[in-house]
Write a structure and sequence with these properties.
Blueprint: E1 3-7, E2 13-18, H1 21-24, H2 30-44, H3 103-119, E3 123-126, H4 136-145, E4 152-156, H5 161-167, E5 173-177, H6 183-188, E6 191-195, H7 196-206
Helix pairs in contact: 2-3, 4-5
Length: about 210
């Protein structure tokens, strides 16, 4: 079991904790992580791009010139794709890019990234975030004490308005919940900050 130090918001070590091997100690599966990431990004696409075909552009009802005898190539409409201001051939149309990935693959990808954070010393465990009021200054001070100066993802076990609103105006910092965690955020943010309650919740959900 990987062992990791636990700090308070002042940056002082208060204890240590043993993390479960099946969640924080597996060998990261890069192929699964890539597959789930591509799925996540595809599902975010709106799919609203659209071009007009020759039947949708205005004009082109009259044949430009007679079929034979002019010495030029035959043309049926000035709105054919080869004409300026003509329709677009085989252009994109509104569509859905969504597809599903196996739940077991998603879980394995999350566990792979959690294990990767431990291996790369990018996991910071805090005993708790005891903020009594919504104040960005308090969150900045806590992150500074924890030596988190880069892009950080704060993972919470459940909704906490004080913590979430205290962190939302800090550039490069995002809060999310255990139930809504995704591979994109875990890859995007260098540091992962979690509380002891979050560790318990992760072990309950992903055990």
């Amino acid at each position: 079991m990987p062992k990791i130090d636990v700090y308070d918001v002042k940056g002082k070590k208060v204890s240590d904790i043993e993390l479960k091997d099946e969640i924080f100690g597996i060998e990261p599966n890069e192929a699964i992580v890539h597959s789930v990431l591509v799925n996540f990004l595809a599902n975010q696409r709106q799919g609203t791009q659209s071009t007009k075909t020759r039947s949708e552009v205005r004009g082109g009802g009259k044949k430009p010139w007679r079929q034979k005898g002019t010495g030029r190539a035959r043309q049926g409409s000035i709105r054919a794709p080869q004409w300026i201001k003509g329709g677009i051939a085989l252009g994109p149309k509104p569509r859905s890019y969504k597809y599903r990935v196996n739940k077991k693959e998603k879980r394995l990808a999350i566990k792979s990234l959690l294990s990767s954070k431990v291996l790369e010393n990018e996991l910071v465990v805090v005993d708790k975030l005891p903020f009594k009021e919504i104040k960005t200054k308090n969150m900045v001070e806590a992150l500074t004490n924890l030596k988190v100066s880069e892009k950080a993802l704060i993972l919470l076990p459940e909704k906490n308005e004080i913590v979430q609103k205290s962190a939302r105006n800090i550039e490069g910092v995002k809060t999310t919940l255990v139930n809504t965690i995704n591979v994109y955020d875990l890859l995007k943010y260098n540091k992962l900050v979690i509380t002891l309650d979050t560790v318990k919740k992760l072990e309950e959900v992903y055990a």
